[in-house]
Amino acid sequence: MEFANEPIFQWMSQFAYQPGMVYAGLIAMMALSAVGFPLPEEVTLISVGILAFMGAHPAHFPPPYEGAPVVNVHTAAIIAFTAVVASDTLIYVIGRVFGRKLLYHPRVHKFFPEHMMKRVEEWTHKYGAYACGIFRFTPGLRFPGHLACGMLRYPVWKFLVIDGIAALISVPTQIYLLAHYGEPILKYLRQFKLVLFGIIGLLVIYFVAKKIHQRWAARAASR
């Protein structure tokens, strides 16, 4: 694994032997993603998968000391799945308890423009409870979508089943994919790392600029 000597991978490998920190960060990022934090949860899941791959190959990514604990792929997958479903359910419960007055509260509504809310309403009316699963695969609509599912009082068990199945399909699979097939993927990342970092940088700038624009538009509309 020639790419193992790359500075970026050497820097990342130190976290492969800090499972407690990684698991705590995983829970925090899954919760933040559920409430609309402008960093796709896929970035976190892929990063954890890479760390699990590194921990499974100590010959190429040496531990700080012999017997150091590693990021375990099965533990990470279970924690990620549980954190995602728990976060989604919390948003659902908030929507069920506080209803439309929360979703359309000025401080909440300014983060979700009218066209976004219109799409949420269209999907919930068109697909019913199955919209719970659709929102799981739609990063920008997860938070308002799960709030809407709660507001419409879809049965809790139905929300848990549909959201759980969607999360089971999308969440652990990304971690397992990177953990087991990390070598060819990391080689690819090494070859295109500048392009990758450039794309990530542009995405971050886009999300930040979008949020700033939405705030300005909301302030202008309220005047």
TrEMBL record:
Locations listed in the record: Cell membrane
InterPro entries found in the cross-reference section: DedA_domain, VTT_dom
Every VTT domain range: 39-177
Keywords associated with the record: Cell membrane, Membrane, Transmembrane, Transmembrane helix
Membrane spanning residue stretches: 20-37, 44-61, 73-94, 160-179, 191-209
Cellular compartments per GO CC: plasma membrane
Domain of life: Bacteria
UniProt topology in membrane: Multi-pass membrane protein
Keyword Hydrolase: no
Name this protein carries in UniProt: DedA protein
Organism: Bdellovibrio bacteriovorus (strain ATCC 15356 / DSM 50701 / NCIMB 9529 / HD100)
